[in-house]
Amino acid sequence: MLKARHMALILGGTVLAIPLMVSSAAADMPSVTVRVEGLTETLLPPTQVTTSAEGVVKDGRAQDACGGTTAIGALQVATGGAWGGPWSETYRQYAVGSIEGESHEFGSGYYWSFWLNHTEAQVGACEAGLETGEEVLFFPCSESAGCASPLGIQAPITAEVGEPITVTVVSYAPNGTPTPLAGATVSSGSVVEKTDASGHATLSL
């Protein structure tokens, strides 16, 4: 897998196997990709999941439910329920405090930032209804210094062994605008390169 590293936040591409046979019920649910980055490591690599019609209830109170086809629903499926946080009566959704064993509760110095399709989400994860093909990202954001910039990496879908390929690394602004990133470390196995001023690096696989 190609990787780009910057400010302890890692974003990359992955090839996913899609089952050829699905139930009619599952086929009606949005299929999305979920990724979770921690402060020092990837907690959940890009994982394609099919959301569920079943609501998500974390506190045992049926009235505190998020829709299964929201970003919270996708997080629930992707992590197998390995996340937690209290229900907010004010905002009518869960305040995510921990994911995959890493905790960042509000007031602790960091909080979990939620992005959708390379853009900082303008609604909470319980409100964000999803459509097939969308990408969900959670990562820690500093309450004092602000969020690190999520990175995106673009590379050819296929390549011949020994054939040089060019990959491009971009940094995403909160509004989704990509900017080429110089100096990012891109690796494939033992091959390691730095991106140039245009965000490009050339690798021979």
Low-pLDDT parts are 1-24
Placed side by side, the strands forming the largest sheet appear as 4-3-12-10-11
- DSSP strand count: 18
Q: Report the structural category.
A: mainly beta
The number of helical segments is 2
Helix content: under 10%
End-to-end C-alpha gap: 11 Å
Mean pLDDT: 88
Order of helices and strands: EEHEEHEEEEEEEEEEEEEE
Radius of gyration: 18 Å
Q: What does the largest sheet look like?
A: 5 strands, mixed
Q: Tell the overall outline.
A: globular
Strand content: 35-45%
Keywords, please?
four-stranded antiparallel β-sheet, 6% helix, 18 strands, 205 residues, 39% strand, mainly beta, disordered N terminus
How would you characterize this protein structure?
The chain contains two helices and 18 strands. Strand 1 and strand 2 form a beta hairpin. The strands form five sheets. Strands 4-3-12-10-11 form a five-stranded mixed beta sheet, covered by helices on one side. The chain has helices at 24-27, 71-79; strands at residues 3-6, 9-11, 31-37, 42-50, 83-84, 87-88, 93-94, 98-99, 102-103, 110-116, 119-120, 135-142, 151-154, 164-172, 178-180, 185-188, 191-194, 200-204. The chain has 205 residues and is mainly beta. Residues 1-24 have low confidence and may be disordered. It is globular and about 55 Å long.
Outline the fold blueprint:
Elements: E1 3-6, E2 9-11, H1 24-27, E3 31-37, E4 42-50, H2 71-79, E5 83-84, E6 87-88, E7 93-94, E8 98-99, E9 102-103, E10 110-116, E11 119-120, E12 135-142, E13 151-154, E14 164-172, E15 178-180, E16 185-188, E17 191-194, E18 200-204
